[in-house]
């Protein structure tokens, strides 16, 4: 596995700082396809990608173009490049850190237009098209379970808005 930092210098995975956060690019050297990702701990993420057990376990949960490609072509045919490291101020919350990471990841996704990224928006399933099989599985998983708003107490304003928007069937 070849890892390159933002200054295009080769970096040994084990020498990466434990606390570095940032955005990375994975390139398939055989076909040129790319993947853009971000991580709060880059070293951990690269170790995950180099672990066949991690890849196999995650493929059982769902489909991933990148993980399938890593298994198909082998790790030596991929280049891992750190596009940007991010140093967080100590008072930033976990949510603020995640938001900043995802903003930077989205910036690079827009610039590079990666082939292996399934989602068009970083950190979100927004814009993702699920297969009929996946939609059926999701439907079965939710069947018989109450909706996420069941039992919620609505304010009078919310109730009024629902009444305005509901189209009652004519009998």
What this model shows, in words?
- The chain has 171 residues and is of the alpha+beta class.
- It is 39% helix and 15% strand.
- It is built from six helices and four strands, in the order βββαααβααα.
- A four-stranded mixed sheet has the order 1-4-2-3.
- α2 crosses α3.
- It is extended, with a radius of gyration of 21 Å.
- It starts with a strand and ends in a 6-residue tail after the last helix.
Overview in brief:
The chain is α+β, with helices and mostly antiparallel strands.
Mean pLDDT, all residues: 80
Distance between the termini: 67 Å
**Global Rg:** 21 Å
How are the strands ordered across the major sheet?
1-4-2-3
**Structural class of the helix and strand makeup?**
alpha+beta
Instruction: Give the count of helical stretches.
Output: 6
Which percent bin holds the helix content? 25-40%
The residue ranges in which pLDDT falls below 50 over 5 or more consecutive positions are 5-9
Tell the overall outline. extended
How do the SSEs run, as a string of H and E? EEEHHHEHHH
């Amino acid at each position: 596995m070849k890892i390159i930092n933002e200054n295009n210098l080769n970096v040994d995975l084990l020498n990466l700082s434990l606390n570095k956060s940032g955005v990375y690019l994975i390139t398939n050297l055989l076909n040129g396809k790319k993947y853009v990702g971000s991580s709060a701990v880059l070293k951990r993420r690269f170790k995950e990608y180099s672990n066949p057990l991690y890849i196999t376990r995650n493929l059982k949960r769902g489909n991933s173009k990148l993980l399938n490609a890593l298994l198909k072509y082998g790790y030596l045919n991929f280049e891992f490049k750190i596009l940007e490291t991010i140093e967080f101020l100590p008072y930033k919350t976990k949510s603020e850190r995640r938001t900043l990471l995802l903003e930077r990841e989205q910036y690079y996704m827009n610039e590079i237009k990666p082939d292996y990224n399934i989602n068009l928006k970083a950190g979100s399933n927004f814009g993702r098209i699920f297969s009929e099989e996946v939609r059926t599985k999701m439907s079965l998983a939710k069947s018989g379970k109450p909706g996420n708003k069941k039992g919620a107490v609505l304010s009078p304003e919310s109730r009024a808005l629902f009444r305005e928007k509901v189209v009652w069937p004519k009998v």
